[in-house]
Amino acid sequence: MEKHFEDGVEYPKKMDNNDKLGHFRHRFYLTKGVINLCGNSLGLASKDAEESAMVMMEHWKEYGIRIWGLEGSKYYLYSEYLAGLMAPIVGAEKDEIAVIGNTTTTIHQAISTLYKPTKEKYKILVDDINFPTDRYAVDGQVRLKGYDPKDAVKVVPAVDGKFFDEDMFIEAMTDDVALILLPAVYYRTAQVVDMKKVTEAAKKRNIIIGWDLCHAVGAIEIDLNSLDPDFAVWCTYKYLNGGPGSPGAIYCNKRHFKTLPGLTGWFGSKNETQFLLRQEFDHKQDASGWQIGTPGLLSMATIEGALKIILQAGMGNMRKKSLHITAYFMYLIEKKLSSYGFTIGNLRDDSKRGGHICLEHDEGYRISLALIARGVIGDFRDPNVIRLTPTALYTSYMEVYQTIDILLDIVKTESYKEFQVRRNLVV
Question: pTM (2 decimals)?
């Protein structure tokens, strides 16, 4: 897609009229007068997700407990069914994916299963700017093994607190490192990490490598079969549009199918023996064996409809539009906002940035509140980052153009000064 952008209202009109993904926008619930640029945090509700949830409700109302046996036990095996829909989106086999719990739970499950520290090889390698729940889980698992996180968690610091070169991680892969957990896309800076380079380096050193794909799945193209990491985890409520707090997912490489899960529960037992209710765990030796308890069908149902939209749109098409519309966004920022103290805090190279723009300003927090008051929904991350995400499936070029005009008005009139500096509970 060409990247020769033009200023003025005719350009976004032309792009919207020729947007091959434009028709998907009408399958989402859009609020009149609101521009939603927060898909990196919570995707919008779709009519498809609503329909799959309502089907589930109707089945529950009509069949009660018999819902588990409907459609060839589809709902009893719902994690496996959803894994089949998710597999082509992440480039993995169906039996390597399970939809369980939430992202933090899946991290605990993966590390408790694959972290096997020895006297010589016991450290977990992380960075210092990833979303903190990953670090909380890592520290907790280290403590459970009897180690002090100050000694057993090896932290690679970001350059200027923002970015990484992959060689920094590789240089930190010393002989005492047993496991690595890193994000594929950074939530604050949108940096995309070269997963292939880092994964290959880890495997050469016999280090377990896992990826947090929360800001990557649905935003960039992923091929786990080609990458061949040991595990990966991701949420479904951001770019996958599964709904607030919808369940997380986990990828378990086939080479670990026979490894007994660190957190065992009855839903990880083999299907044929599960209801024999024996007092000994009968491990189902694939990713679904990493399930713990009874799946929450109602919170999983929305994922079904949401994933079908993505499969129809195609991740290649979505990534192509995402790169183009975010580049257009950056073009307008530089042309119209740079003289008002705004800078772009994400990398520019297509291969190095995810799905969101990191707009930086010293008054970023109050400007973000002023944007929300004007109907533009983004979010803020310390110290000065306004995250704005033109989502491929439902954001128009005209909305990007309008957002720039609203931002320009906010800083020209200094209307952001009407808002308090004190932080809200959720931003």
Answer: 0.96
237 is in an annotated binding site: yes
Confirm or deny that 16 is annotated as ligand binding. Answer: no
The answer to whether the annotation marks 212 as part of a ligand binding site is yes
Nearest alpha-carbon partner for 141 in 120, 121, 112, 169: 112
CA angle 379, 383, 386 (to 5 degrees): 25
Give the Cβ contact number of residue 350 at 10 Å.
16
Could you give all domains of the chain from N- to C-terminal order, each with its CATH number? 10-30+314-417 (3.90.1150.10), 50-312 (3.40.640.10)
Q: Residue 59: which pLDDT band, with cuts at 50, 70 and 90?
A: very high
d(CA 357, CA 378) in angstroms, rounded, equals 10
- Return phi, psi of residue 384, to 5°: -155, 25
Is 104 annotated to bind a ligand? Reply is yes
Residue 425 has pLDDT above 80, yes or no: no
Q: Which residues contact 158 (CB under 8 A, 6 or more apart)?
A: 127, 128, 129, 164
Q: Is 294 annotated as a binding residue?
A: yes
